Amino acid sequence: MITIQRQYSLPNCVLMLEGFNTDSDPSSRPPLTTLTHFECHFANESTVIEGDRDLLNALAQQVHAQAQAILSGVDRKSNSPVKEELRLEPVGQDTFLLQIPRRLLHSPEEPLQDLKLELSAVQLFDLLEALDQLMEDTQTLPEFSLRLRPLSRKEVGAGQGLGQQVIAFGLGVVSLAAVAGIAFILPTPEIKKPEPMDQESIPSEEVIPPEATQPPPDAPRPNTPGDTPEASPETSPGT
């Protein structure tokens, strides 16, 4: 019996599985049909989640249910009448509290109490992506699946959460990409350099000397309003 390992790595989460294949398969990548142990590591977090198939099933169920609640805006508390042993609940705007009972944990040292771990939104969605990659891998736990209850129309209509923000963000990205694609397709306008003008085509200004604008010395000066005409010698009195 050969031990088989699988790893699904994301920037903020690494999911590692270990098990074996009950059937003899000489292929280069034999399927992992029986899980004996798994680990989940998070970035910037020293706590490691370790367990077996029971913990993996409960973790995947709660992570997908919480992601469904975030995207639909439906409160999971009103949607989960049965108290779950493994709990995952939002405790802030971008923080989620994961609580795992002691009996589901497997580690070299026997845990003395339940595990409580705060996950950020990016850690949670990277864990979701790792679990999705696991379920899409036909060579690892082929029968692994989830049982999620679909939301009713009433619940979907009442919930307005992150889903609309994700849609708006997606439309914004698509619009930006479309504009960028159009700008890439359009030809670059050709810029023509200005041609130098000939000296003959440049209009010249005629300079008029100041003497040409003054009247000749012997020309009579026109009368202006307010001037008093002088009497001539012939009309002066006493002659």
Would you kindly provide a brief summary of this structure?
By secondary structure, this protein is an alpha+beta fold. The chain contains four helices and seven strands, in the order E-E-E-E-H-E-E-E-H-H-H. The radius of gyration is 45 Å and the shape is globular.
Describe the structure.
With 239 residues, the chain is α+β, with helices and mostly antiparallel strands. The strands form 2 sheets. Strands 1-2-3-4 form a 4-stranded antiparallel sheet, with helices on one face. The protein is 28% helix and 18% strand. The longest helix has 24 residues, at 162-185.
Rg calc: 45 Å
Which assembly state applies to the chains in this document? Answer: single chain
The mean pLDDT is: 74
Structural classification: alpha+beta
Task: State the major sheet.
Answer: 4 strands, antiparallel
Query: In angstroms, what separates the terminal alpha carbons?
Result: 158 Å
Overall morphology = globular
Helix content: 25-40%
Uncertain stretches: 78-82, 159-185, 231-239
| Annotation field: number of helices | 4
Q: How many β-strands, per DSSP? A: 7
Q: Percent of residues in beta strands? A: 15-25%
Biased composition (Low complexity): 200-211
Protein name: DUF4335 domain-containing protein
Biased composition (Pro residues): 212-223
Pfam family, one: DUF4335
